[in-house]
Automatic annotation (TrEMBL):
KW Hydrolase (keyword) present: no
Name of protein: TPM domain-containing protein
Biased composition (Gly residues): 641-657
Chain intervals for the UniProt region annotation (Disordered): 623-666
Segments traversing the membrane: 162-183
Annotated Pfam families: TPM_phosphatase
Species the sequence originates in: Microbacterium invictum
Coiled-coil residues: 251-435
Length: 666
């Protein structure tokens, strides 16, 4: 079916736009072999490939750096050169000392993928890319690789040779500082307090370290806010609103600071190039905001802890949570049956956000039972404090189980709504194509657009009637076809009718955006122990875009539509990033922020691992203090492949991130 969609859309574009020649062969990110060279474009003969392989092996012998060179015709999935090369590095488990030079020989694009913690700096890599561009432009592939190797050798040799110079400079600076301190002390004695100066400026943190600190602070603070928000709900239910007024104010302030921090992180991650100065300023601001948010929550921690003295009401609370757990268990059976029904109707792609919700909910409920049993034992032994910890952990586990169950029903409703919307849009497109056929068409563009839209509409009608199906994907493709047709005849159609179509399209897109954001929110919240800052940032920005779309509905519908579409895309990115993080967590690997995963078995293993995945950390609660508020899961060593020239090695916890801006066309 996807192939039919692709063929239809390609045909439509060909009929509407100018004709083009056959495209070059596109290539997905490749698997590196036993050597340093992958030549899928076949631009090197046997002798050239052997010479390049030897040159790259020499680079490793002299510097310890692995440089893998990949020649393909075109980059695809993703088509962006940086993302494509970085995906090759990720798929092949490359470490901090391992680089990929990726060249699209027909697409005429190139990029060097590098870990930010590697021995060659971003500026040095940019300089190397500039040096090899003329060789690539002339088709001198061997010369390009040789020049790249020279650049790597020069960068690492210069760094080693500068070591003694650096030591001498440090000694000289130290002597100057000592002299300055002596002079300053003497002046201070002579002039008293009026002659005092401010504290010396602290050494500047390297930018890569600052970025890692900011990402980590975002994760910690997001967990702190989410956990505090849940705890506030529990406290309100038990003690009332009046007793939690101060904590509500602190929480709202922390949420506002966190939202500003996520906005800055999104600005750092978008497609617009940022200067090092901007990156440093924004990351420092993220740290400041996170520190302020945590300080506000910690300031109220003592009052909140006193409010949550469950030991005074532990027997009643234990009975209440047991009853809630039994209700959730009964509902879980219905949820499991519901998932079975949904899988017979819809494709896996339509259910990916809730695919493992039944297993995850069962883990939470098993964990809750374990905690309640331990709490009862503690009560029988007269230890009310220990009982309160178990009851609190069970409360959160049951709450997450209920959220997971609710998410299945919400997804079912969203899919049903998408089916109805797709059917309505098919009918609307049929009316529009009929009406468009009567419009003036001096150059035949309208006729071509009408024919292409009818082809897309028929394919959509077939897909809506198929079993299994993905109505969300079908609706998205229909929306794209509708927008293309509207864009073509926008200057011809009546302004009032166009506004009506825009309003209807906005309503559909905004509803879909809300559904995507809600699905991603539920997924991340119940698996936050494994989810890093990237997914959380996309989710925060998706929610903000959806809010902006709602605010602009009346005043600027077109801008509102753009924001709603952006919210959809960001929510999908958030969900995909979170699913990759959870997958890495289950495998004991690294998430998108370079943090250790939690170990194998997360999809259906032990209840404890499920609790950790959900961000429920009992040991921290039992140990006392406020650290549980910011705990997001456990860390365990992941696995990395080792070796050089095809058997690759990473480093335990020592890597940075990929995604350097560079490369380009040649």
């Amino acid at each position: 079916m996807r192939a039919r969609w692709a063929a239809a859309l390609t045909a439509a574009l060909t009929m509407i736009l100018v004709g083009v020649g056959p495209a070059a062969s596109a290539t997905d990110p490749v698997e590196l072999g036993a050597g340093y060279v992958v030549d899928e474009s076949d631009v090197l003969d046997q002798a050239q490939e052997s010479a390049v392989q030897d040159r790259l092996a020499e680079l490793y012998d002299q510097t310890g750096i692995d440089l893998y060179t990949v020649f393909v015709s075109e980059f695809t999935n993703p088509a962006d050169s940086q993302q494509w090369a970085d995906e090759v590095a990720r798929l092949n488990g490359l470490g901090v000392d391992q680089y990929v030079l990726a060249v699209a020989t027909d697409g005429r694009e190139y990029y060097i993928s590098a870990d930010s913690a590697g021995p060659v700096s971003a500026d040095e890599l940019t300089a190397i890319e500039g040096e090899i561009r003329p060789f690539l432009r002339d088709g001198d592939w061997v010369g390009a690789v040789s020049t790249t190797v020279d650049g790597f050798e020069s960068a690492t040799t210069a760094g080693a040779g500068a070591g003694w110079i650096f030591v001498l400079v440090v000694v000289a600076i130290g002597a100057i500082v000592v002299i300055w301190l002596v002079v300053r002390r003497r002046r201070s004695r002579g002039s008293g307090a009026s002659g005092a100066t401010g504290p010396p400026v602290a050494a500047q943190v390297p930018l890569a370290d600052l970025e890692r600190q900011a990402s980590s602070a975002l994760v910690d603070t997001d967990d702190a806010v989410r956990t505090s928000e849940q705890e506030l709900g529990f406290a309100r239910a038990q003690f009332g609103d009046d007793a939690t007024v101060d904590f509500v104010a602190a929480l709202e302030s922390a949420k506002a600071q966190l939202a500003e921090a996520f906005t800055l992180k999104q600005r750092l991650d978008d497609e617009i190039a940022d200067t090092d100065a901007d990156r440093r300023e924004w990351n420092e601001r993220i740290l400041q905001l996170c520190q302020a948010a945590n300080a506000e929550l910690d300031e109220k921690a003592a009052d909140f802890d006193a409010l949550r003295e469950l030991e005074r009401t532990a027997p009643d609370a234990l009975a209440r949570v047991r009853a809630e757990r039994e209700t959730a268990i009964t509902r879980l059976r219905d949820t499991e049956e519901r998932m079975t029904q949904l899988r017979t109707t819809y494709r896996d792609t339509a259910l990916s956000a809730v695919a493992d919700n039944v297993d995850q909910a069962r883990q939470r409920l098993g964990f809750a039972e374990q905690q309640l049993t331990e709490a009862q034992t503690a009560l029988d032994a007269g230890d009310g404090g220990e009982a309160a910890v178990g009851i609190r952990a069970a409360e959160e586990a049951v709450d997450q189980a209920q959220t997971l169950e609710n998410a299945v029903e919400k997804q079912a409703a969203d899919l049903s709504d998408a089916e109805a919307a797709a059917s309505a849009l098919i009918a609307e497109l049929e009316r529009e194509t009929a009406a468009s056929g009567a419009l003036p068409d001096p150059d035949g563009q309208v006729a071509a657009a009408v024919a292409a839209t009818r082809q897309v509409t028929q394919l959509a009608r077939d897909e809506v009637a198929a079993t299994p199906r993905d109505p969300l994907a079908t609706l998205q493709r229909l929306q794209a076809a509708d927008q293309q047709l509207d864009a073509l005849v926008a200057g011809i159609r009546d302004a009032q009718a166009e506004q009506q179509r825009l309003t209807e399209g906005l309503a559909r897109t905004l509803a879909a955006a809300r559904a995507r954001v809600a699905a991603a929110e539920d997924y991340i919240m119940t698996r936050r122990g494994a989810v890093g800052a990237n997914a959380r940032t996309r989710l925060a920005e998706a929610g903000a875009a959806a809010v902006r779309a709602e605010q602009l509905q009346t005043s600027d519908p077109r801008a509102a539509l753009a924001e709603a579409q952006r919210a959809q895309a960001l929510a999908d990115e958030a969900l995909a990033s979170a699913q990759r993080d959870v997958g890495a967590f289950d495998r004991g690997g690294y998430n998108s922020d370079g943090m250790f995963g939690g170990g194998p078995g997360g999809g259906g293993g032990s209840d404890i691992l499920g609790a950790i995945l959900g961000g429920i950390v009992v040991n921290s609660l039992r140990s006392g203090g406020g650290s549980s508020r910011r705990s997001g899961g456990s860390a365990s060593f992941g696995s990395r492949r080792s070796g050089g020239g095809g058997f690759r090695t990473g480093s335990f916890g020592g890597g940075g991130t990929r995604g350097r801006r560079g490369g380009g066309r040649f």
